[in-house]
Design a protein that fits this description.
alpha/beta, 8-stranded mixed beta sheet, 26% strand
Length: 209
């Protein structure tokens, strides 16, 4: 039985517990379905708090997942620990200017300095496409040499005949592969786990849906 739990929250990178395991961070504009995607990834309904109000995540939130490693035939599976960090959503204009300004150093400090961070999952609403804030974050990740995994969420909001076209267009603009996903249907979940496992140097058996 795999386990996932909330571990800590902080308003600076130094406020989090010292890194003990591989970390994967999740970033994106407010209201792109970031919390829902993490819940879907871990097969938990309410582990990460979701809200209809954009900008609900206002600090760094650290979650710990106990996973099963895939081994060769006839070998007993081993366990691995992976930490997931939910970053504050950016681009929500109705927060105060002071608060919005504070998020930049918070996010950049974590991304640049956190030992153990292996990749950043950048989440984009498939209906809105990649925006200037997203491109700026991609440039920053390249600058600090952090691999990015692009995920286009809310595929279920588009007609099935248009989904692949939108994903391909987003991939072309971003200049890199994009994983199409839906927290409603679970689409893209295994593909995202495969990307995370590769960058974490783990061969992971994803949590049962």
């Amino acid at each position: 039985m795999r386990e996932a739990s909330f571990l800590a929250a902080a308003v600076t990178e130094s406020g989090l517990p010292p890194p003990a395991f591989v970390e994967i961070a999740f970033a994106g504009r407010s209201n792109v379905g970031k919390s829902s995607l993490i819940n879907t990834l871990l097969s938990r309904r309410r582990l990460v708090r979701t809200s209809s109000t954009p900008g609900a995540t206002r600090g760094l939130a650290l979650f710990r997942a106990e996973l099963t490693l895939v081994r060769g035939q006839g070998r007993a599976p081993d366990r691995a620990t992976l930490d997931l960090v939910d970053l504050p959503g950016y681009g929500y204009a109705q927060r105060s200017k002071a608060e919005r300004r504070s998020w930049g150093p918070m996010i950049e400090g974590y991304l640049e300095n956190r030992v153990g961070l292996r990749a950043v999952v950048l989440i984009i609403d498939i209906r809105r496409g990649i925006e200037d804030d997203d491109l700026q974050l991609l440039e920053f990740l390249e600058h600090v040499k952090r691999p990015a995994i692009l995920v286009a969420t809310k595929l279920d909001k588009l007609p099935s005949t248009q989904r692949m076209t939108h994903v391909k267009a987003l991939s072309a603009r971003a200049g890199r592969p994009v994983v199409g996903a839906s927290s409603e249907t679970g689409e893209g979940r295994d593909a995202l786990w495969a990307r995370i496992a590769t960058l974490s140097h783990l061969v992971v058996d994803p949590p049962a849906a």
